[in-house]
Specification:
The complex is a heterodimer of chains A (about 375) and B (about 325). Chain A is built from 13 helices and 11 strands. Chain A is α/β, with parallel strands linked by helices and about 375 residues long. Chain A has a domain of about 140 residues: Thiolase/Chalcone synthase (Peroxisomal Thiolase, Chain A, domain 1, 3-Layer(aba) Sandwich), CATH 3.40.47.10. Chain B is mainly beta and about 325 residues long. In chain B, the strands form 6 sheets. Chain B has a 5-stranded antiparallel β-sheet, with no helix packed on it. In chain B, strands 17-16-15-18-19 form a 5-stranded antiparallel β-sheet, with no helix packed on it. The relative contact order of chain B is 0.12. The chains are: A alpha/beta (about 375), B mainly beta (about 325). At the A-B interface, helix 1, helix 4, helix 5 and strand 5 of A face strand 1, strand 2, helix 1, strand 15 and strand 16 of B. Strand 5 of chain A pairs antiparallel with strand 15 of chain B.
Chain lengths: ~375, ~325
């Protein structure tokens, strides 16, 4: 399969907060989009097409954001698409945008993902009662906490690994001016003393609920070569899905995630993720998903992911930093969270990550997942052309 | 298999309505309405747009970035097109016949959708002159203008002073979806089974995976599940969490245990509560059984929760594939 090369030439994101009371939904997406355009040194008229994503419509009660936001995103008279794959949507949206360039159809595509969770309530929006369907009797945490317990048992992991991730990602967030949660005093004790919501999961081991948006400009090789700022070259993209429920489904280490990683690694020539990547931005909404995804993504053998976390390998100064931006545990505008992972990975290899720049990063993984661990989207970006 | 399908009326609604933060530009428009004024924005090319937006809809460029970009238009306006509503519905703004119209306020280059209270359809025509009839109590909402009325008929009223001087920053947006939802044939069989204190799964045939609740097909292959199999009521807790907040109205107390339970004879675990024992004693491998509600029916609430059977715990190897 031959495809045109595609690169990230502009990245923008909002300041993520529990409530962005100062902006409308329009203002929120434009804040990110205008920053991406400025970073790309482009204007609205330079853009050929717009691809937008957001997570469940219940959050804002807006079921057609592509219609509502088309002209606000400069899409008048241009192709506009909306993508929807639950929490992984930010990643899938970026992949659709990349595909429009890889196919040779467009040269400059603006992609935007957002969520304004404060317009309703995340607990309600994710667990709307529906007749004849078993209610999620304990919210999103109640769905994932039993899987975390299953992981701990399966891997024989010490009980404090999750707390280590919770501390590490929040310390990283202090270096990120856009991050929602800023907890400079966080330590193991603070996490341990936070309320045990869904045992084994504590309050500070879960992600916040945020208002925020992320945007990127994806460009053809010709455009990227002419850009004055370093591009991030897309070296591989992959997505996979599987049903939420089927007999003997491995929900802790889902096959769709394994297949998605294998596909994107093959495209990018990754044979040893821990060695080949300089850093990774991975969708970790609950602390324990770091060791779980370390295994699913092949950074560690099955049952060994927690050892990487424990050793400090995934810390900012470790050999394979995970979520140097602070990750989903520090900012979670759900629809945008996946694109933030993709965009932060791109900024790392562009040398544009600011205070949370991993020194000398040349290749990074962006990852997103959603639903009941059933949608996966990943890309590999690098400073070098594929 | 019977093709009876249970149907329930369902209302999907965020309680109290969505909270919209309106931002600086729409906020200024709504604040204007609250104050009895029509506020528009001047775009880069000189056009005057109402309602104002944060951007030029043609170019995407910013609009309303500075105070000087805003101006008052109207109060009079011209109807550019309209449709007559002869039989108003309960949620319509007026309870007697009226027109929905596009009204271009004097000084603006765009029109707003609003209501014209003209009495009869014969009184309506494109190009007619209208003036706003302001409510006495205004909150920063489109319907702070009760309706527009034909100019010169005396129906207009000057706006009385506003009761607040605070800028309008939010509005409530009630969204309600009301519909009949069907359970589908397979789930109906399951629910009717619960009404008889039986837990019914389905499989594609002998040797096939048993799904409970059934969905009518095997999700791995799409093959219809035509073979009904009774499962449970006993099973094993494959994994669980202890919930320390009152998320579930079904839970007897807090803390409560939300578990994945693999019923005997089933090939997939389902979520259920575990009770009648201390939460701290619940463990993976625990043998449990369904506790039926005093009154059962074709509803999921027919099973209250699961309680321990007292049998020895299941071996991890016996259920590890179901996690």
């Amino acid at each position: 399969m031959s495809a045109e090369r595609v690169a990230v030439v502009g990245v923008g994101q909002t300041e993520h907060r529990a409530v962005r009371a100062d902006v409308s939904m329009v203002g929120l997406v434009r804040e990110a989009a205008k920053r991406a355009l400025a970073d790309a040194e482009m204007t609205w008229t330079d853009i050929d097409a717009v691809v937008i994503g957001k997570a469940p419509d219940m959050f804002e009660g807006v079921v057609m954001p592509e219609l509502f936001l088309a002209d606000a995103l400069g899409a008048a008279g241009k192709p506009m698409l909306r993508v929807h794959t639950a929490g992984s949507v930010g990643g899938s949206t970026a992949i659709v945008a990349a595909g429009l360039v890889q196919s040779g159809v467009h040269e400059r595509v603006l992609t935007v993902a957002f969520e304004k969770q404060s317009e309703s309530d995340a607990m309600w929006a994710l667990t709307v009662p529906t007749p004849f369907q078993a209610p999620l009797v304990a919210g999103a945490g109640g769905y994932f906490a039993p899987l975390i317990r299953a992981y701990m048992q399966r891997a024989g992991a010490p009980a404090d690994i999750g707390m280590m991730v919770a501390v590490k990602d929040r310390l990283n967030a202090i270096r990120n001016p856009y991050a929602h949660l800023k907890l400079p005093d966080i330590d193991m004790q603070m996490v341990e003393e936070s309320p045990m919501l869904w045992e084994p999961l504590r309050y500070l081991e879960t992600c916040p609920s945020s208002d925020g948006a992320c945007a990127m400009v994806l460009a053809s090789e010709r455009v990227a070569d002419a850009a004055s700022r370093p591009p991030a070259w897309v070296q591989g993209t992959a997505w996979r899905s599987e049903p939420t429920l089927f007999a003997r489904r491995d929900q802790v280490n889902p096959q769709a995630g394994l297949d998605c990683a294998a596909d994107v690694y093959r495209q990018a020539g990754i044979t040893n993720p821990r060695e080949d990547f300089d850093c990774a931005e991975v969708y970790v909404p609950f602390s324990w998903y770091e060791p779980m995804w370390l295994e699913n993504l092949g950074f560690a053998a099955p049952g060994e992911g927690w050892k990487l976390t424990q050793s400090g390998a995934t810390a900012f100064d470790g050999d394979i930093p995970w979520n140097p931006s602070g990750g989903v545990l520090s900012s979670n505008p759900i629809g945008a969270s996946g694109m933030l992972r993709f965009a932060e990975a791109a900024n790392q290899v562009r040398g544009a990550a600011g205070e949370h720049q991993v020194e000398g990063a040349r290749r990074a993984l962006g990852h997103a997942y959603g639903g009941g661990s059933q949608f996966f989207a990943m890309w590999v970006v690098g400073a070098d052309k594929p | 298999m019977a093709d009876e399908v249970l149907v329930e009326h369902h209302i999907l609604e965020y309680p109290g309505g969505y909270t919209r933060t309106v931002g600086p530009v729409i906020g200024r428009y709504l604040t204007g309405l609250r104050d009895g004024r029509l506020i528009a924005v001047r775009l880069g090319d000189g056009r005057v747009m109402i309602p104002p937006a944060e951007y030029d809809p043609v170019t995407g460029e910013d609009a309303g970035a500075s105070d000087a970009d805003f101006l008052e238009v109207g109060p009079g306006g011209t109807v550019t097109t309209w449709t007559w509503i002869s039989e108003p519905r309960p949620k319509h703004p007026l309870d007697h016949p009226f027109a929905f119209a596009l009204i271009q306020p004097d000084g603006a280059d765009t029109a707003i959708v609003h209501v014209v209270d003209a009495g009869t359809e014969n009184a309506m025509h494109t190009g007619m002159r209208v003036v706003p009839k302001w409510r006495d109590e205004r909150v920063g909402d489109t319907l702070d203008i009760e309706a527009w009325v034909p100019e010169g008929t005396g129906g207009a009223s000057a706006a009385k002073p506003a009761t607040s001087t605070e800028p309008v920053t939010t509005m409530s947006s009630p969204v309600k979806l009301e519909y009949d939802i069907g359970a589908g044939v397979a789930a109906t069989r399951f629910l009717l089974g619960l009404a008889q204190r039986r837990i019914l799964g389905q499989r594609t045939g002998p040797g096939g995976d048993v799904y409970v609740p059934p969905r009518g097909s095997d999700p791995k292959t799409g093959t219809p599940t035509v073979d009904e199999v009774e499962v449970g009521p006993r099973g094993v807790v494959t994994t669980f969490c202890v919930v320390n907040l009152p998320f579930s109205p079904l839970a007897p107390e807090v803390p409560y245990v939300c578990a994945q339970i693999l019923l005997d004879g089933a090939d997939i675990a389902l979520f259920g509560l575990v009770a009648d024992m201390p939460a701290a004693d619940v463990r993976q491998g625990l043998r449990v059984e369904a506790v039926w509600a005093d009154e059962v029916g074709p509803t999921l609430e027919s099973i209250k929760w699961y309680r321990p059977t007292g049998e020895p715990d299941a071996e991890y190897d016996s259920y590890k594939e179901y996690l």
